[in-house]
Design goal:
With 410 residues, the chain is mainly beta. Helix content is 8%, strand content 44%. It has 4 domains: 33 residues; 159 residues, Jelly Rolls; 87 residues, Immunoglobulin-like; 89 residues, Immunoglobulin-like (Sandwich).
Length: 410
């Protein structure tokens, strides 16, 4: 016997057994890790917000089941919203879609080795989407139309975050842009879609109808305007004229599905004064009526946030800490921010210091966007003010911007 009571001739056997046991445990651990990795990679989208009756039909099931915020979806899963419901889905490949009431979509993702970004098939209803200004790491978002036709969506360079809407109609699938510019591609076919315009993409780009504005272009307040509340507040809603329109139908509601309408009226001019009775979120849209009084399609629903405190933090792009590539020093750079409502003048300040006390460039105007021809390499800070005395900042802290490139010789 050995000192520990183990037969000497059996020590080698015990070592072998221990090694085998260790290998077995390692193999099990590796298998579990592989399973977790496979499960995670199968997720193509996540529910960020769910309001009202929302359901999903999993790929392996033949029935609908309710879900809540935090739910995950895999390739081939269906999602639908009921009356007065909505849900926001964050796509794994980047970007997001927000389903309005009575909408049905399928989320998908190309299988290896093809790969690529997220695929969305709209069966019915309306979905609103947002794509970031930066290219999506896994490839563009793809809309699947009839007969498997697929149109890829990417954001035009320097256009900033781009918002769009997809609506299923009896005739096709309307894709329209509310902010920014989309580049559409299908095989060798290419199209550009600017804000306020639409295209029927159900049958792809080769047979797409001529794009045009099917509804009046909303002008003011801007997208997601934030306005400070005060008794007797008056908000002017305005839009552009549409050829052949006799009058316009204006609707204001407390929800994106327009089930809780507080204004539904016709006007002959190009604006309407809305008087909110309390703070909160309001949504408005406008449609044109033809010579016979028939309403056309409503424009994009714009949200207005009436807040008890003065709004801050309205800068949109470039994001804080953005590093522009070398070539951008000689190209356009887009600065954008949200609206505060009304028709104020804005003042963009680009400076070398965080307090914006050493400006290198100042631009003033009534738009929510300024395009600069380029900045020399270096570190900058920027912010936007309402151009009044004293100036009112639309930010809590200035955003940092870095333009890379060779140092400037002094």
């Amino acid at each position: 016997m050995g000192e520990l009571g183990v037969p000497r001739r059996g020590i080698a056997g015990w070592v072998v057994l221990l090694l085998v046991a260790g290998c077995a445990r390692t193999a099990e651990d590796d298998g579990a890790a592989e399973t977790v990795s496979r499960e995670l990679s199968a997720i193509v989208a996540t529910c960020a917000v769910a309001r009202g009756p929302v359901e999903t039909m999993r790929t392996a099931n033949a029935y609908w089941e309710p879900f809540e915020a935090g739910a995950t979806f895999r390739s081939g899963d269906w999602v639908r919203t009921g009356p007065g419901a909505s849900t926001r889905i964050e796509l794994r490949g980047g970007g997001r879609i927000e389903l309005e009431e009575r909408t049905v979509v399928m989320v998908d993702r190309p299988a290896p080795p093809t790969g690529g970004g997220s695929v969305v098939a709209l069966e019915s209803g309306t979905a609103r989407g947002l794509l970031p200004e930066d290219a999506l790491p896994d490839g563009p978002l793809v809309l699947r139309g009839d007969n498997g036709r697929q149109v890829a969506l990417t954001v035009e360079e320097h256009a900033g975050p781009t918002e769009f809407r997809v609506t299923r109609t009896a005739r096709g699938m309307h894709l329209s842009v509310s902010r920014g510019r989309l580049l559409l591609s299908e095989g060798a076919h290419r199209r550009t879609l600017a804000a306020g315009y639409w295209l029927d993409v159900a049958r792809g780009l080769e047979d797409a109808e001529h794009d045009g504005p099917p509804f009046p272009t909303s002008l003011s307040p801007g997208v997601d305007a934030r306005i400070a509340w005060s008794p007797g507040l008056r908000i002017t809603l305005s839009w552009g004229p549409l050829d052949g329109a006799r009058s316009y139908q204006v609707q204001v509601a407390r929800d994106l599905g327009f089930t809780r309408r507080i204004v539904d009226t016709q006007v002959e001019g190009l604006d309407f004064t809305f008087l909110p009775l309390e703070p909160g979120m309001f949504v408005w849209r406008v449609a044109a009526l033809d010579a016979e009084g028939r309403p056309g399609e409503s424009g994009f629903a714009r949200r207005i946030f009436v807040e008890r405190k003065p709004p801050r933090g309205l800068l949109v792009t470039p994001r804080d800490g953005y590093e522009a590539p070398d070539a951008l020093a000689a190209e356009d750079l887009v600065f954008a921010w949200q609206s505060i409502g009304g028709e104020p003048r804005y003042r963009l300040v680009v400076a070398r210091d965080r307090e914006l006390r050493q400006p290198v460039l100042v631009r003033e105007g009534g738009l929510q966007q300024v395009v600069l021809p380029g900045l020399a390499p270096g570190e900058y800070y920027w912010g936007v003010y309402v151009a009044e005395e004293p100036p009112v900042p639309l930010f809590q802290k200035a955003r940092r911007l870095v333009v890379t490139g060779p140092p400037v010789e002094r």
